[in-house]
Specification:
The protein is an all-alpha fold and about 375 residues long. The chain has helices spanning about 25-35, 40-45, 60-80, 85-95, 100-110, 120-130, 145-150, 160-165, 170-175, 180-205, 215-225, 235-265, 270, 280-300, 305-325, 330-335, 340-350, 355-365. α1 (about 25-35) packs parallel to α4 (about 85-95), α3 (about 60-80) runs antiparallel to α4 (about 85-95) and α3 packs across α10.
């Protein structure tokens, strides 16, 4: 049962190119299915989350992260009466524009594109579903609904908002996206906060002793030990993370219900005119800030991570220079593009970690990994 403030596919603002309704699926189900079958979605399996793809088989990738975000978002959506198919579509598409080598790769590509309009993975995700996918005879992209496209575009500059038309208008009007889009933003945060702890400990770069400095981790670990005295090792870590995930999910549900009760939006459009309604409680948000600072200091800036992603940035920079100097090294459609720098960025952003490494070695003769 949908709540009054949920997005209703029968009232969707539609697609860029009109299509007849599907006989057995609502519009948001169609969006989700198109995303799952896209080339960009399959590439996520070999794209970095924190640890590069070649560093281990069990670390999160962009694909497994996206699936975890979708699972969390659907669970919360069901409790709040939001549209589960829409949150799943947004969650599965939110990282389609990510470069190889994670945020480090994005930073390197942005530097390469600084004189040509820059590069930002969030805008690139929208570009993937609007322009770059080639699956249909009548249009470029996946022709997703406005609501899914809006959810993919989490933030953008004023200039980009003007250029993007309908999907960028809310940034000019200072309105909010749908509640489903707001939920996906928080589900993304819930997923990476908890699972980066798991991958950090699995890698050996973080220890359980270091995590004593993180109150939210200690709180749920102590809860686990009270219920299971003597628990240790991987089982203690897993149980602590499981409780952290559940705690954040229930906190979002309770805090959002309180915000909805305060503002009482009677429709999805009314919810857009309210302040952000899908939220953590203030105590939980404060605890998560401590966790994020810890991960930034001890994991994302760990010398081993920095050294490895630094090599990834070098791959991106040198690939960009090689294609700029000799566009024929790219597939013909990219090499012949009118806007060559943007075509190079599109080509590099679409690469998996391992393809970028192989391509760099082919073009430079250097083996960095």
């Amino acid at each position: 049962m949908l709540a009054p403030y949920a997005s209703d596919p029968s009232a969707s603002r539609g697609r860029r190119y009109p299509e007849a309704p599907a006989p057995t699926r609502n519009e948001y189900q169609r969006d989700r299915d198109r995303i799952v079958h896209s080339t960009a979605f399959r590439r996520l399996v070999y794209k970095t989350q924190v640890f590069l793809n070649h560093e281990g088989d069990l670390f999160r990738t962009r694909l497994t992260h996206s699936l975890e975000v979708a699972q969390l978002a659907r669970s919360i959506a069901r409790s709040l009466g939001l549209h589960e198919d829409l949150v799943e579509a947004i969650a599965l598409a939110h990282d389609l524009g990510h470069t190889p080598f994670g945020h480090a790769g994005q930073d390197a590509l942005h530097q390469c594109m600084r004189e040509y309009g820059g590069f930002e993975h969030n805008l690139q995700s929208l570009r993937v579903v609007d322009e770059l996918e080639e699956r249909y005879p009548a249009f470029n992209g996946l022709n997703l609904t406005f609501e899914t496209r809006e959810g993919i575009l989490k933030h953008c500059s004023r200039a980009d908002a003007q250029r993007l038309g309908d999907v960028g208008r809310r940034f000019l009007e200072r309105a909010q996206p749908s509640l489903e889009a707001q939920l996906c933003n928080l589900a993304d945060e819930i997923a990476y906060n908890a699972h980066d702890v798991d991958d950090g400990v699995r890698s050996g770069l973080l220890t359980m002793e270091q995590l004593e400095a993180v109150p939210i981790f200690v709180r749920y670990r102590d809860d686990a030990l009270r219920e299971h005295p003597g628990l240790g090792g991987r089982r203690l870590l897993f149980e602590t993370i499981r409780r952290m995930l559940s705690g954040q999910v229930y906190d979002v549900i309770d805090a959002t219900r309180a915000a909805l009760a305060e503002h009482q939006p009677g429709s999805a459009d009314a919810a857009r005119r309210c302040p952000p309604l899908v939220r953590f409680s203030h105590p939980m948000a404060a605890e998560l800030q401590v966790l994020k600072r810890f991960l930034r200091t001890h994991l994302y800036r760990h010398p081993q991570v920095v050294e490895t992603t630094g090599r990834g940035q070098r791959v991106v920079r040198e690939l960009f220079a090689a294609y700029r100097d000799d566009p024929s090294q790219m597939p013909p459609d990219y090499a012949a593009a009118e806007d060559l720098p943007r075509a190079i960025a599109d080509y590099i952003a679409g690469m998996t970690d391992r393809f970028a490494i192989r391509e760099h070695e082919r073009l430079t003769g250097l083996r960095l990994f």
